[in-house]
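FW: tagging you since you asked about this chain on Friday. Here's the raw sequence from the shared folder, copied in full. Didn't touch anything.
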Amino acid sequence: MISLDRDAMTPLYVQLANVLRDRIRSGEIPVGRRLPSQAELEVETGGTVSRRTIKSALEVLVEEGLVQGVQGKGVFVIALPE
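HL: got it, structure written out here
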């Protein structure tokens, strides 16, 4: 379960990106593995965030060069965070 703090100053999408980045760093989601889908992440957050928020979090990780989307397959880890 992913718990995000709605009262925090940090936006929800940044909090979610941080959680996913930490999972990648720890090896819970290793390089080459697919990240949970948007629907799976929605369930993991207890339905408390929108798909747009999830998409924004994934976009942060794409911009950082940690993940890459593959059409029709999902989003895959391609690098470890520094």
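FW: The longest strand covers residues 67-70.
HL: agreed, and The CA atoms of residues 5 and 11 lie 9 Å apart.
FW: great, closing this out.
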